[in-house]
Amino acid sequence: MTDIIQVVGYKNSGKTTLVGHLVRTLTEAGLAVGTVKHDAHRFDVDREGTDTHRHREAGARMTAITNDCRTAFMEERPVSLEDILRRMTDMDAVIVEGFKQENHAKIVMIRSEDDEELLRLKQVKAVVSWLPGERRYGDLPVFPLGDADGLASWVRANLLKRKGPDFRSP
């Protein structure tokens, strides 16, 4: 069973930086880690003039490109998070950036007191706070923004079934 961890917060709250740190830390611990990023804008990873772009322009609903080290799929429709996660079952853990309303274990990024409303989301397990001073949010563990290592250790100990070969309980 793949462990799913969401990192949620508002724009410029440090989500991508934290996801990168968690991926590095868990990968260095010997875990296979995947990521999913929600984009509120209309993105395109393809470039005009490429063969795959031409395939899509011709009407292909799904296009794949592969070589000896990488594969990408592009679909001309939205795909649910659960459908994406079904494609990632060979990962030990998947870190999801965004998708606030989904029901997986969440790390919430709090940049300002206004962001504290995010604590009402389902499955909040930990908080990363930009706010000065020691904060308490019920029984939730709170990590200051600069303690990504502490959070990563907590994630391995508390949110992952597969912890990696070098795991020692903090």
Give a short overview.
By secondary structure, the protein is an alpha/beta fold. 22% of the residues lie in helices and 24% in strands.
Description:
With 170 residues, the chain is of the alpha/beta class. It has one domain (3-41, 79-158): P-loop containing nucleotide triphosphate hydrolases (Rossmann fold), CATH 3.40.50. The protein is 22% helix and 24% strand. The chain has 4 helices and 8 strands. The protein has helices at residues 15-28, 51-57, 81-86, 148-158; strands at residues 3-8, 33-37, 62-66, 71-75, 93-97, 105-110, 124-129, 142-144. It has a 6-stranded parallel β-sheet with strand order 2-5-1-6-7-8. A hairpin with a 4-residue loop joins strand 3 and strand 4 (71-75). Helix 1 crosses helix 4 (148-158). The longest helix has 14 residues, at 15-28. The chain is globular, with a radius of gyration of 18 Å.
